Structure formats: C-alpha cells, structure tokens
Amino acid sequence: MLGRLLFLGSLLSALLALILAFPPGWLLLKSHESFPLVFGTAEVTVPQGGWRPHLQFFKNSLSETVKEVSVEALKTEYFSHVTPYGEKAQAAVTAYLAEETRVKPMGRDEREWYFDSDWEGFLKLWEKEGGDVVWKPLETVTKETGSRHYVTQIEGLGVHFMVTEIEGKDANAPPLGLLLMNGWPSNLHEWLPLLSAWKKEKDLVPNRPLKIVTVSIPGLGASFSENPTRQFLVTSAAHVIRVLAEQRLAGLFERYIVCGTDWGALISEMMAIMVAREQGERKLAGIFHGMAVAASPPHELLLFQMHEGVGRILLQGEDEAVVRVFSSKRGAARELIGQFWERSAYQHMLNTRPVGTAMAMGTSPLSFCALVFEKFYEWSSLGRPDVSKTEREALWRQIASVCTMAGANRGMEAGFRYYRENIPVMYTELMRTRMPQSVPFALASFPGDPFSALGPERYLRLRYPSAIQVRRHSEGGHFPSLEVPLLLATDLRDFVNALLVG
C-alpha cells in the first residue's frame, strides 16, 4: 500500500513538474473576452458631460471637425500657460541639486545615479536655448518631413496630432495608417528621430504608402492635447484614439496599425480587445508592440500572476509578499521585479499621492526635471559614457520638452493621476490577458528596457498568439525612437510589408 502511495505521489509530482515547466496557456492567461471593459464605477468611454476643455485654444477654435494648425500657434498657446518661475528660484534649485548629486556619490553602484556630469550639461543647454530647446526640434522635423499639425475635439476633449506621409514602392496601393503612441513621461518629441530617419533613408521605403499619425495622447501630462479634469482610464484613451483613427481620419486611410511604447503600448492592447469584440469590418490591421510582456511561468513567479502580486505590492506595500518575491534571484520575472523595484520610486509616488506630488513638482519645470531626468537615463541606453553628443542632446531636448509641456497644461497632476487610476487594472488584469487571435502583432524587445527581463519567447507567443514578428535586439531601451530610430523604422517597415492588408 505504501509503495503504491509513493508511486502515485511520484507520478503526481512528475506531472506537476511537467505542467510547471511547460504550462498551457489557460493556466497562465485568461481570454480577452473576459477582460472587464469597466473598471470600478468608471464608464468605459466618456463621463457624462465629457472632459471639459480648459485651454482657450481648444475652447474658442475647436469643434469635432479636423483643423490644421501651425507650430507657432501651438507655441503661443502653450507658452502662455507655462507655470512661471524666476531665475533666482532656478539658480537655488540648481545649486542644491549640484551639491546633493555632483559632489557626493550616491547609490550602491554607479549605474544608479547619472547626474555626475549630464545634469550640468542639460541645464546649460536649457539656459542657452530657452524655449527653443522645446520648439526648435519640432519646427525642424516638421519642416524636414513635410509634416502637418491638426487639432480636433473628441468627446469634448481637445486632441492634437501630426501627420507625416511616407512614399511606398507601389504608389498606387491604398495608404496604410500608422499611429505612433508614446507613454509617460514622454510626448510626441519621442518620435521625431524616427520620422526624420524614415524620411531620409531610402532603404526604409515600405511596399505601400504610409500616413503616419503621431498622436498626442490626452491625459499623459506632457501631451499637446488636452489633459482631462476627470477620471481617464486606458479604456477611455483607447476609445478616443479609435474615434480619431476610424472616424476623423477616415478620408486619410481605410485601415491602420498602431505602434506603441509604454502606456501607448498598453492602450494599443486595449484597442485590440475592443476591436475583437465587435462585428463587421475591422479597420485596425495590426499592432507593433514596443513593450511586450508575457505571463511568467508559475514556478518562476506565481505571485506575479495573482491579485496579491505586483498591483497590491505597489499600492499597499505588503512586506511579507515583497520578502517572498525577493528571497530568490532566479527567473526572468524576479529579475524584472528587482529592476522595476529599484527604478520605480516615481511610480510609487504617482500611485499613492498623485495630487500632492504634482503640487510639489509644479513649483517649477526644473523641479519636475529632477524627477524624470533619472527615468530617461535608467530606462534607456543613453546614459552610457560612449553615447554621442548628438544623441545625448536629443535626449536632453526630449526631457526639456516634457518638463515644459507638463507645466503648461495641468500636465503634472493629469499624468500622475493617470498612474493612480490605471496601474491596478494594468497589473491585475491586462498583463494576464491573452491578446485576440484576430489582430496581428509584432513584438520588439530592447535590452535597456526593464520590461525586457520578462518575456521568454514561448511565453510571449502564448500571450500574443497572433504574433507574426518577434525580435530581440542587442541595443536600445524603453524609448527606442530616441535611441535606435533606424532599428525601429526597419522593424516597422518589415511589419507593414508582412501584413496582408487590402
């Protein structure tokens, strides 16, 4: 009898080990059909009465039609709303940061602190160029690429976007739309190197013409669009972007794909879920995912998949759970948590105290810079000492743009609240949801991105069953358009060429 029990126990142990080593998709993920398109008591799309535009530019001159605007008009509107700060205040903050960062080394190792020299160079560039550090790159790329800027109103919310046309090898083929969507703390400046490179490089010509729409996503803080004064979830953002692509721009292209990084990537996933549940012709032809994450196997980090996992750790600080996670250094998922925990103090503040943090940061664009400067360096490959001056200055201009725009449009509070309102559903629902088979995906992973630690290819293919292109790169990070624009453009061109779109 004892022998039979031991044999049965061994058999069950072997079966369990086999399941843990090669877990089926149903064990790790749930169907997109069960994803809740309502989170809490918030409406899926629009609060009653819309989101109340507050910028005069949108109140006076905007309707549900699409209107072309100049960069100069955008500059005039947004600069008139920048939070003022005096030279003495800036000098005082600069001196304090210099004392705290450049003089005294901090952290356990050198990669954790990047202010040693770049902070001073960044401030000198900002002081030298003033407002041009924000607007000159946008004006230059707009002119070089022949891009045009537009605004429209969707659900009472002012939305800005930029259109860039790319010629195709077959000029007679119907154009395909390509929406570029960034995350926090970025804005459309992130995409300027990609647009510039794509226009200049003849080898990057796709098979068909492209209408590239760089979207200023509302609610992310540094956006050129309106920042909502009411709750704005990823479902709301996905709805607004779909209205823009499928209704307002219906005369520009019939079908479109989306390329997203950071929150833009998560919004694109939400769009895929929405589209898959609808009947009739689908205008969304595919999604290029610049931050693909996959379900981790239970034996690596079962905690990560459960409601007791990252979402609750970040929001409630369960010490015992944290100890269990960090007790072992093995596994890609634990590596992700370790990196993320070390590099995400900003997120804990945004998750828990968005309004107070925004008020503290809102005293000066420079104060906000002190918060986001490290993220751009730690989450990218641009903090390396061998980075060229041109690449580094492109990053500095991006940071200056983000900090200025966040002070111009109620951006700090909006961006911080976006985290507080959306992080729970992201960790407890979205990251455990299998994407629909009906929407083709392309996945790209960059080593400088902390999220790249999570996503062995077999698990990526479980979460994204319709992936037709999966590439792991040896360079680049969380902001690939800033860091490796040619590499990203090549990936996008190949994805466009691989899609069977009529």
Automatic annotation (TrEMBL):
<comment type="similarity">
    <text>Belongs to the peptidase S33 family.</text>
</comment>
<dbReference type="GO" id="GO:0097176">
    <property type="term" value="P:epoxide metabolic process"/>
</dbReference>
<protein>
    <submittedName>
        <fullName>Uncharacterized protein</fullName>
    </submittedName>
</protein>
<keyword id="KW-0732">Signal</keyword>
<dbReference type="InterPro" id="IPR000639">
    <property type="entry name" value="Epox_hydrolase-like"/>
</dbReference>
<keyword id="KW-0378">Hydrolase</keyword>
<dbReference type="GO" id="GO:0004301">
    <property type="term" value="F:epoxide hydrolase activity"/>
</dbReference>
<dbReference type="InterPro" id="IPR029058">
    <property type="entry name" value="AB_hydrolase_fold"/>
</dbReference>
<feature type="signal peptide">
    <location>
        <begin position="1"/>
        <end position="21"/>
    </location>
</feature>
